[in-house]
Amino acid sequence: MLAEQRLRTILHQVSQRQTVSVADLCQLTGASEATIRRDLNGLARQGKLVKIHGGATSLEEEEFLAREPDLATKQRYAREKERIGRYAATLIGDDDVVYLDTGTTVLHMAEHLKGSNALFVTSSIEFAARLTEYSLHIYVLGGALKLGTVDIVGAEALDALRRYNFTKVFLGTSGISVSQGFTTPDPEAAALKFLAASRAQTVYMLADSSKFGRVTAATILPLEGARIITDKLPDRKYLDCTDIVAV
User: Fold this and answer.
1) Which residues contact 14 (CB under 8 A, 6 or more apart)?
2) Torsion angle, CA of 185/19/58/241, rounded to 10 degrees?
3) Global pTM?
4) pLDDT, average across residues 22-37
């Protein structure tokens, strides 16, 4: 098959199936894996598809959010966030060293951590206050208070975070996109989340299903950088990028 025909075949398959594997494209075109991967990289650079591990997916129709959602928006999906937080708390053992991020979904873990002997580190003053009610072992990062919240951000928080190594990290996100990964409107928050993830054995991203197909200003991690815990998976194409648990 000629190169031009092969590229048309690839784009047609992506358009029809949304997500295709390298193996399937090799079978359809008779080309080698190296050739198909080279084709996919070229088409991705042209903005015609999104290259993912083991294949490609179609361009998403994404909602771009320029600002942090307001309080009313954050309080939506409360029942779903409760389920996600309850499940996430079951993943923590007494020997774990855990980083707990800011965000309403992660905050729902708090009431399910009573009696835990794990060591907790957080950048959320609200989270720390809740956990101290249960006499848990918790450290709070130092740094600047983010305007409009009681979350710690900034250079001092990053310096403090570098002193820790974690078995598990639980993060929140404002958007999940195959092409842009996990995103948040605040670049300072993104930097803190990224650093926490880089110091962890296992990273979990807690997000209700409304976050899929959204993009905000700052990328935290690519999708393969964290396992997702959500209430519902809106599109199976995300499974090609990372492990996902719907609770």
Assistant:
1) 20, 49, 56, 57, 58
2) 20
3) 0.80
4) 93
- Please check the confidence at residue 67 and state whether its pLDDT lies above 70: no
For 193, the enclosing helix (H) or strand (E) is helix 187-198
Q: Name the amino acid, one letter, at 136.
A: L
* Cβ partners under 8 Å of residue 198, min gap 6: none
Amino acid at 34: A
In tens, the pLDDT along 154-190 reads 999 999 999 999 999 999 999 999 888 999 999 999 9
* Confidence at residue 236, expressed as pLDDT on a 0 to 100 scale: 84
Beta strands of the chain (E only): which ranges?
A: 19-21, 50-52, 55-57, 63-65, 97-100, 119-122, 137-140, 144-145, 152-153, 166-172, 175-177, 181-184, 200-206, 214-216, 218-221, 227-230, 244-246
- pLDDT above 90 coverage of the chain, percent: 72
Q: In whole angstroms, what separates CA 49 from the centre of its chain?
A: 21
Q: Answer for the pair 39, 2: CB distance below 8 angstroms, yes or no.
A: no
CA dihedral 119, 91, 239, 59 (to 10 degrees): -40
Domains defined along the chain, listed by start = 3-57 (1.10.10), 64-246 (3.40.50.1360)
3 state SS for 71-84: HHHHCCCHHHHHHH
pLDDT at 72 over 70: no
